[in-house]
Amino acid sequence: PPPTGGAVTTGGAVTSPPQGALRPPPTGGAAGRVVAPGDGRAGGQTDCCGGGFSFSFSADRHRHRHRRDRILVYCASTRQHRGQPLDSDMSDWRSHYHNEDEEDQDDAEDNEEEFKFIGRDSLIFLIDASECMFEVDNETDISPFDLTLQCVHKVYTSKIISSDRDLLAVVFFGTQKHKNSVDFKHIYVLHDLDTPGAKRVLELDGYQGEKGNKMFKEDLGHSRDISVGEALWACSNLFSDVKLKLSHKRIMLFTNDDDPHANDSSKARMARTKASDLRETGILLDLLNLRRSGGFDTSRFYRDIVSQSADEDVGMQFKESAKLDDLLRKVWAKDFKKRAVTRLNLKLGEGVELSVGVYNLIHSARKPAAVRLYRETNEPIKTKTRWFNGETGSLLLPSDTKKAQVHGQRQIVLEKEETEELKRFDNPSLVLIGFKPLSLLKKHHHIRPSQFIYPEEEFITGSTTLFSALLTKCLEKEVYAICRYTPRRNTPPRFVAMVPQREQLDDQEMQTMPSGFHLTFLPFADDIRKVSFPKSAQAERDQIEKMKRVVQKLRFKYRSAEL
What we know:
By secondary structure, the chain is of the alpha+beta class. The chain has eleven helices and 22 strands. It has helices spanning 59-66, 94-107, 144-162, 198-205, 209-219, 228-241, 265-280, 324-335, 416-423, 463-477, 541-554, and strands spanning 8-10, 13-15, 53-57, 72-74, 80-82, 113-117, 120-128, 167-173, 187-194, 246-255, 283-289, 342-349, 352-359, 403-406, 411-414, 429-437, 451-455, 479-486, 494-501, 504-505, 511-513, 516-521. The strands form seven sheets. It has a seven-stranded mixed barrel with strand order 12-13-17-22-19-18-16. A hairpin with a 5-residue loop joins strand 4 (72-74) and strand 5. The chain starts with 7 loop residues before the first strand and ends in a 9-residue tail after the last helix.
């Protein structure tokens, strides 16, 4: 969720917040590293946002959708037929399937839907290779360059396991030799944007340690004549050279030099211009500042370079890193994609609304789906399903089929609009009903993983201020809000408890707990049942002693040869 600042209330008045009063939720952990138990269902939700998306359904619903012979089909010719799934190579049917999938999406219940986003995530590690990066820190006995390579190594190995479809690249700037698509001096592209593999990990390991540093100096060398603007240009070209669709583009810059262009204003101006161009094209630039003698002052140069997008916490407020754990926490926090499940209005009363985004902080980690391969070429195959008229054999289009319900030995045909209207209760919204003390919210009320809401200033101006004031007052009075939650159209509403949460930071000023509200789904009456435990008769003391002697008589020495 975006760090949009906010306001807190003191004595009933809304004032400007202190630094860090309302900051974005935590992003620690790589994708697939945080695992939470589900709610007993096969489906679930993943937190996502941005880009185009499609739906996928739970395993139970997927099996139901493939039992097509049980679906009652009403043809346009007023005859009843049963659909029979057949395989065919008709490429023009693809457009019809899109409509059919949309119809299935509307039929899915909220707790059985899962967002699946199109495109691949890409990440470029832009590493300063000047001589100051190779100076060993007296406290940690490790150079900033070795610390950076260890961090990149961890990311590579984690991506191989959890997100093997993500694209990664490593680019050095400040080297004597150069290798890049635009032939810029002192910029060396070690790895192009591609999926991580063992060969790349071993290549990175070869430059670690004292021997590795000497090998790096022999192979690539060092140079003080660097240009951050040209390095960003080379990274931008790496994104452009990828033929795949990219949904998330990010550059992480590792350096311990807080002003690389102190004596060259033209290069500094070029770097600021290129950083602005990257922001306009949707490429995020993050600074991972490493510790150096004298401290790292971001205001000298990098404050105008680093991206300050609407959905990212500004990394400049963090202290410089000197340990691997601290650096990894920052990398995971920035690399983790914060995507909204939905965005809607929180209605506090008549004419009082604010915009919020709904997020899943954790989600179930599932086993990757099996990929069907063609036995001769070992290439992935695509399975298609066709609907045909059982009597005539003609191809059935989506317009030829309607939904029907048998009631009283009579078949009632429903249009798509009618089925949607039956399920439509309200527009997507979060409507405030009232407040209750936190002590009334019990643990047994938990029926599924909760969601998290955070203000969206883009849609309604002032949402952050009102949200922060509401959060502060709920924390002061120790109450939670009861709301009616309708996440999407054609979805039945649920009653939820908006539980306030205060922000918590660690010693590195990294957020461990976000400030905002948890949406805890409240159970209906039939969701909770009382289980009666029949009382059994207790054995008396003499009966227990006699049973002990029986068990002792049953013991014997085990010899496998005698059995």
